[in-house]
Amino acid sequence: MIKKSIYILAIESSCDDTGAAVLENDRVLSNVIANQDIHAEYGGVVPELASRAHQQNIVPVVQQAILKAEIDKKQIDAIAFTRGPGLMGSLLVGTSFAKSLSIALNIPLIAVNHMQAHVMAHFIKDENQKTPDFPFLCLTISGGHTQILKIKSPNDFEILGETIDDAVGEAFDKTAKLLGLPYPGGPLIDKHAKLGDKNAFKFTEPKTKNALDFSFSGLKTAVLYFLKKNLKENSKFIEQNLNDICASVQHTIVNILMHRIILASKRTGIKNIAIAGGVSANSEIRKTIKNGEKTYGWTTYIPKFEYTTDNAAMIGIVGYFKYLNNDFDQENIMATSRLKIND
Ligand code: KG4
Ligand code: ZN
């Protein structure tokens, strides 16, 4: 008997990107994302504006995803959506939409943990990407989270270390803000860093009680005082040294991340190393992790760019695995802004 394809419609609305994707089994047929430029002028995500923009975007984004996938909505087998973690107002838009559509189409509903989805994006079938073997370590680095995870199976995640204050994406975005760069500043720091000298300025690496934990609030303060001091002596300090500052801060951040993942690999003996989340789009992190293949004998898994920052395809792949396990949710399932990694 020929196995029927499973079509999952996935919706992502945890922060400031409205995403919809259609998957046929573990392959992506469409992956549509509407970014919200409105936050750039405020220097960060404004929750109320984000939920309003989700409301405006969700119908056209879902329509486009179905259209691009070239399927009829009657073919959809289940709807997967981001339950959390994230901004409550944003999550509610995707959650309510997913629930209504599942009732209208009379198909199952699947709630997905956004942080698991970042990791599981590695299991999206793609000719040019290999999927990780279990167990593997994943450095999950985004605007809201920074964790080293040990992944033993598709639904067994253990936190080995995590940030005790800011997320690494915040360290990038807050540094960018101090430099007068618009939100989100991470990609811009990456761009300027390519033209700068990473050894031009030195910033100290913070120590944490658990050597696998992270701390980034000290770095933000160090950059602030460093800029204040230098601007006092030269008001054009930032514009004259922008590339070098970006390269030096980025290099410090990459060192902090690398020292922890190297230690986690040594302690666990696991050499399958993955990165995930928005900050895994960073070119120096990608290059440095990849170099671990030669230096430490790692097998590395670097996600495709479109699956690093928030997207619905990653929600869809978790939805697909849950569908195969008949792991469905009822209409009374609630959006949850704080969701632990195994929830
Ligand atoms: O995963 P994501 O899209 O959203 C969250 O779930 O938080 O991550 C967004 C974060 C932002 O802080 C953004 O500045 C950062 O990822 N980011 C980068 C790069 N691209 C995105 N940070 C450094 N270098 C990049 N190339
Ligand atoms: Zn994310």
Descriptive tags:
binds 5'-O-[(R)-(carboxyoxy)(hydroxy)phosphoryl]adenosine, binds zinc ion, 5-stranded mixed beta sheet, 343 residues, alpha/beta, 9 helices
What does this entry look like structurally?
It contains nine helices and ten strands. It starts with 6 loop residues before the first strand and ends in a 19-residue tail after the last helix. The strands form two sheets. Strands 3-2-1-4-5 form a five-stranded mixed β-sheet, with helices on both faces. By secondary structure, it is α/β, with parallel strands linked by helices. Helix 1 runs parallel beside helix 2, helix 4 runs parallel beside helix 6 and helix 4 packs antiparallel against helix 7. The structure holds 5'-O-[(R)-(carboxyoxy)(hydroxy)phosphoryl]adenosine (KG4) and zinc ion.
